[in-house]
Amino acid sequence: MSSFQCPSCGKGGFKNDVAVARHMSQPRSGCSTWLQDLACFRSESDDSHMDLDDEPNISMDDGPNIPDIESGGFGDWDEMSRGSTGGSESQGMPTHNLEVIDSYPDCAQTYGKGYTFLDLFNSDNNSKHRATNPYYPFSSWKDWEVGSWLLRSGLSMGKIDSFLSLEMIKTLPLSFLSAKELRSRAEMLPSGPRWMSQIIPTKFPTKLPVVLYWRDPLDCISSLLNHPAFHDQLDFTPRRVYTTAQRLCRVYSEWATGDDAWNMQSALPKGATLLGTILSSDKTNVSTMTGDRVAHPLLVSLANIRMSTRLKSSSNAFVLTALLPVPKFIYKKKRMRGVLEDRLIHECLDIVLRPLKVAAREGVMLSDPVGHTTTLSQLATARSKVDPDDIEAFFREAQKFRLNGVNTPFWLDWPLSDPSHFLTPEFLHLIHREFYDHDVKWLVCAVGDTEIDFRFSVLQVITGFRHFHGGISKLKQVTGRAQRDIQRSIVAVSADAVPSTVMTAVRALMDFRYLVQSPVIDDIQLTHISTALEEFHANKDAIIDGGFRRGQRGGVIENWYIPKLELMQSIVPSIRNTGVSLQWTADTTEHAHITEIKDPARSSNNNNYDPQICRHLDRTDKCRRFDLAMSLLNNMTDSKRQGSDDVGDVNDNVDLDADDDHGDGDVDFDADVDHDIPNLLAMSKYPGHSRPTTNYFEIAKVLQHREAGTVPVPLRSFVIERTAFHLAYDPSIRNISVDDAAIKFGLPDLRPAIADFLRREDTHGRDHIHTIGGARRAGPTTPLPFDKLQVWFKLRLQDTDFHDISIIRPAQTLNCAPPSDPWTSGRYDTAIINNEARCVWPTDGLHGHTIGQIRLLMRPVGKSGTNWSWKDRFLVYVHRFDIVPQSSGTNDREPSMQLHLLKRAKRSNGTRVGDIVPVTQLRALVNLVPCFGASADNRLTPYNSMEHASQFWLNKYWDKNSYFPLSM
Q1: Per the CB 3.0–4.6 Å rule, which of 382, 608, 736, 796 could disulfide with 726?
Q2: 53 burial class (0-12, 13-18, 19+ CB within 10 angstroms)?
Q3: Which among 877, 876, 817, 840 is positioned nearest to 965, based on CA atoms?
Q4: Rounded distance, CA 782 to CA 774, Å?
Q5: How many other CB atoms are found less than 10 A from the CB of residue 763?
Q6: In sequence order, what E strands does 170-292 have?
Q7: pTM of the full structure
């Protein structure tokens, strides 16, 4: 009989290829990284032998992926992301593996070496002093650390003086003794773009002089371009991306993938670099409670910075380039005062943005094409009939063209600019605000405010997500986040209480809202977006017919004069022109109002805000630049000192045993406690989250390379396909008998379920994918090879982004706790469970998967001295849900809501269908909403609604990442 051999270490004698795979998957074997190294080598080899034609580079795997279940192997990421190819035209299906890219030729060429960040840092007048003292004008690193903290603390000068006058602080060797001296030293730090001010003359009187504070936007853009943090996040090449080599379906994502970037590049000389400028402006309150002080910031950024980086508030990718004046004109008519303010804003924008216009003209070296746009032609017609200085007559003439009365728009002489293209849709104030102002009001009116509030209040609480205990009809100060949280559940919550045609209209608009927020959109998905909007318009009259569209006084409105609905028609053309609209959301710039305006204003003396804001930002920018420069210089020094000593395995640089003082090898590993293994928690940033995201994928990878005996087995962090699992080191119940667990968790068939599971393991092997259901063969007194269980009440599941597996999403908590106060029926969450080996979540959607409620998370503890063949791992007891067939629906979905209706699977004797499966078959947390009927049962609470309801809606709107696979 032939034996099999390990291709890495050469060890032989293996029975079959499965045994070889098991050997290579074990961390202690030293061969666990061989497949990954081979995959990397193959990828590099494929890149080096890429054909010169436009055929796509498609990677083919030699065999199926065999994930390492016990040690948490990563397997082959290509296999994970590819899945089934049968549903390639499903909504949102990622197609990155098959993409074909046509890049614009001969663009973004470099001409010699420019200036780096450190070159500019070392070019100031004080650089000679830093040759001996790198922290000049501060005396040392500790002196700079204290000074930097005080400068960024937001403390007033009086409070800083009070702090420095403390006796303990006086003993410190500080180079400054007062706030004034500290700020004077901060002024000596290397500077970034400098602030300027200018008095703007006005033809009509104002209460106060109009002062514009600004800095050169070209300098601001230059500071972004040479910032070290963006060195690998810049995209200068316009491109057209297609799903296949036939180039029949375009893919849109970043700005450079849209038509505008390609067309603009074609208007530039050969080798020129196209920079997309993003401008964001909105008024924000400065004073609190009193004062009526308003600031009007103008933020600038680069569209060339990748979307995932630019949308992070922590990236500081938006720079304040101007504080536009907010004047108070002395004029009788309020509407004309607004026209004068609009004209002044455009005049100030023309001043601030003049350097960018000059750069555009000199770079393009072509005649100005914008003189032929429709808007400018309309303004020329209005000016030919009325003197623009006669603001009332000119406004009336401009209104004929639906214009606001500004006679000289700031983009008048800006090459390649057209408002129909550069005014992109903005989700925060468009689709989310429209939802709360209109969709919510329609459903509240249709369901009833008391009824809909009660339904929201009795939904089961999900860890990490907002729960509306008091309902939604009377919310105050609703933020964009609250609007998104309402969107998660309102469709399923309103079911059965709203006419089907009204629900179809609202659901179609919700589908439109979710589809346009995708970070990657192709032509097929654009068709789905347009279809969803058309479906809304085809059914919207039912909302008026039912009397659900009402005004503030309760009267029925019988028209559809909603500007935000009209603007939705421009989203699809905008995606084709400028890439996905998600990248233009104002969430990041709204947050920048806090850091760039409100926080500096709070540290002022509440008088004459604008100049003090500018000085504060200047000091903060200097401190940030100085910190960055010192960090870079220190790293360069360390690199030179270490030399070639750092060459080696990257895992050698992670001191996982820094706190390991256990002589017996029983390490207390709990990734929830930072002090246990501080260097193990790999942190990554995620758009929309201010806190770093714990990367359990990286933790599991590091654990695989730990020496045997230094980590508990089975590993508490491991990875299967695109899902990472993490359990606390200490179980919630350390030791409980099987029968006691059955009583505590209300599972009378726990013992026979475990026996049936072990029988299937012995029959089919450890790689068998277990299903939930089937005849129960074991009896209630069947003996087991173990008596005790360890039980966990929580499990952390982490997955990757549906469209980009390189993005790690925040982990979600899955609860499975026994009855307690106030959860008298227990707290059990639901999850997607794999039940077919050939199907992969999320690329295959629900195909090959089922929905289950996790009732028990356990690890059997074998009897002392008993040998048993079953491999040590974690198990879950799951109650199954079945999809209720819909006679008139498609894909077993309810026709108006397009949601799956579920019911608990039951046996012939009326008991719930449940079984044991390995925890590795779980894939993702999923949300179920009870089917309330026409009127919800008033006995329901958040703690019993999941147990007392008979049917449930599979809520695909709960999470945008699961929306796409659940829509397949």
Answers
A1: 796
A2: exposed
A3: 840
A4: 18
A5: 8
A6: 195-199, 211-215, 239-242, 250-252, 277-281, 284-285
A7: 0.81
